[in-house]
């Protein structure tokens, strides 16, 4: 029997899956124990350590939030592939240099620069969203998400093993190597038939929101993406410090932190394609609301955990909720956005995600420094409830 030939968008999806995997693995290799690396760069009290850890984590997303709309506008003029290559090459260089950091401000500065060149995964979403047939949108976005999530799954585990054996700097060098691989995969594996929009002076070329069917839905997805990232990333600056507290500073804290950080990725990897396919059948709205409800139910009990095992189990279950969140918001936006402005809309969404990735960690660092690590989970639960309210309001307005 003759094998069916893959369409170009499918070939691009597989190539970008590999690029997303490399990006997810590399970027997550050092994040779970970034606070431990910061602690080796000086003798800091607890409040100062959590502050610097929050700054080191969120600085990348701060610059990302500022420059993403500019890159998105350029992508709609030049194509998404050049932006993918720009991100991959930029992160190859900055990630490698980060491994040579000699003090905490050099670390923060390099991560700030890295954010200016990041955006590989977001541009991968934009490229596929502009090509995939609408009836396959949910499943395809879910599958593409498993690339990044799969990388974020193996990254902390291998990063924890490597950091425990060879030191905290080596994962940054591996990050650079993985982004070099992503560069090659994108260069040779992705083909984009991009037709630039002619600049005729009309409003369409100046506003990304012209032609959007339900603008309040798109704005709700922006806010939802921001709050999802804030909730998801709030634990990152304190995860290794909290695990160290639970383990009473005994054993391989870096490895245990890596496992705890990776567990949501396992669940998301398994659930994302299925939930994406489910959203194609029953509607993205129901899947998104269910994911937010499940998130709130799971984050609150983390306040009471006494062992790393219980924390890990709850984090695993949170991964199932995550699979119903970010891919579905991407699907909703792609279904409501015309191809001529998809890159700009997705870049604005990336800015909101980046803002969330700044707000969450900085709030968590403040809460942990003033109160205790456990209160971070109460804060995260509140963010999820706010998100749920925004989404329900937008969908009710859409029905009316």
UniProtKB/TrEMBL annotation:
State which residue ranges cross the membrane: 12-37, 49-71, 83-108, 144-165, 172-190, 210-232, 253-272, 292-318, 377-395
The main location class comes to membrane
Q: Does the keyword Disulfide bond apply?
A: no
InterPro entries found in the cross-reference section: MFS, MFS_dom, MFS_trans_sf, Tet-R_TetA/multi-R_MdtG-like
Membrane topology designation: Multi-pass membrane protein
UniProt key word Acyltransferase: no
Query: For the Major facilitator superfamily (MFS) profile domain, which residue ranges apply?
Result: 12-399
Q: Enumerate the subcellular locations listed in this protein's record, separating them with semicolons.
A: Cell membrane
Would you tell me the Gene Ontology cellular component terms? plasma membrane
Protein's UniProt name: Major facilitator superfamily protein
Species:
Ligilactobacillus pobuzihii
Q: What is the lineage of its organism?
A: Bacteria, Bacillati, Bacillota, Bacilli, Lactobacillales
